Amino acid sequence: MFRILKKEVLSPSVKLLEIEAPRIAQKARAGQFLILRVNKQGERIPLTVADCNRERGSVTIVFLEVGKTTRLLGNLEQGEAIRDVVGPLGNPTEIENFGRVACVAGGVGVACIYPICRAFKEAGNEVIGIVGARTKEFLFWEDRLRAVVDELLITTDDGSYGRQGFVTDVLREVAERSSPPDRVVAVGPLPMMRAVCRVTKDYGLKTIVSLNPIMVDGIGMCGACRVTVAGQTRVACVEGPEFDGHDVDFDELAQRLRRYQDQEREALARFEAECDGRC
Questions:
Q1: How many helices (H) and strands (E) does the chain have?
Q2: Which helix (H) or strand (E) holds 209?
Q3: What is the Cα–Cα distance from 29 to 242, expressed in whole angstroms?
Q4: H-helix or E-strand containing 183?
């Protein structure tokens, strides 16, 4: 059992849990993920390590409540425990002094990009953060990001904060600067990552994307996260989760992401019916 040390609501339906897991905290690196099981009957879900505190012996996850399991996870309170936490899993982000790095995040991807920005900064890079949200109320960790980047550019779909528009609008302007990024890293919803890759391909910018959204068991056994990269079949959870975005078959990826939508909707509907509005 893994005790919850802290719980925080970051924005509508987005929650943070700091979990006591000293052995994982000692080894976790930027870009890696955990596999959680809320209770004995629960499913396994992957969530990226948003932060870790080696002295406190804790890891932090940030998640959007979209289905039954994330709703169950979000219902837990400080002092309660999660049944299983396994990790760190996956290959960490390749961190070197590339020179200038642009880190692009959308939605909950902000939590995933934070440790990556910090690691690139510690490696001596100039780091440009580009983050997007639907509205101001869905934006979080702005202060954290400002502390680990040289420049932070914010967009909202409705213009309620920062610049109105999408992260790709800002990324295109950054790519056209006299000193464009030497590398781009994108984490967020699949359509966003795909759009980022379309922009960066026009400018010949190396772009890394995280394929966490399609993972299921996290250890390569189920095969649900198979994806074609540079014409070869790769398993995202054990060979990734990060790949060169220009080599990813996003059409195939989108199909796989939709594979269990009916079952997920059915499970959530049953859960809400059983709760009868109490959770």
A1: 9, 17
A2: strand 207-210
A3: 13
A4: strand 183-187
Q: Round to whole Å and give the CA distance between 39 and 129.
A: 36
Contact 56, 111 (CB under 8 A): no
pTM, 2 dp = 0.91
Q: For residue range 135-180, what is the model confidence (pLDDT) as tens digits?
A: 999 999 999 999 999 999 999 999 999 999 999 999 999 999 999 9
On whether both 62 and 133 belong to a single domain, the answer is no
Strand partners, 150: none
Which of these, 15, 183, 175, lies nearest to 99 by C-alpha position? 183
pLDDT digits (tens, 9 = 90+) for 184-237: 999 998 999 999 999 999 999 999 999 877 777 677 777 777 888 999 999 888
Q: What are the angstrom distances between the C-alpha of 142 and each of 16, 75, 158, 167, 257?
A: 15, 25, 18, 15, 29
Instruction: Give the range of the structural domain holding residue 60, as residue numbers without chain letter.
Output: 2-89
Contact present, 145 and 66 (Cβ < 8 Å): no
Q: Mark whether 154 and 215 lie in a shared domain.
A: yes
- Distance, CA of 223 to chain centre: 20
Q: Do 64 and 113 share a domain, yes or no?
A: no
Give how far the C-alpha of residue 159 lies from the chain's centroid of Cα atoms, to the nearest Å: 23
pLDDT at 209: 96
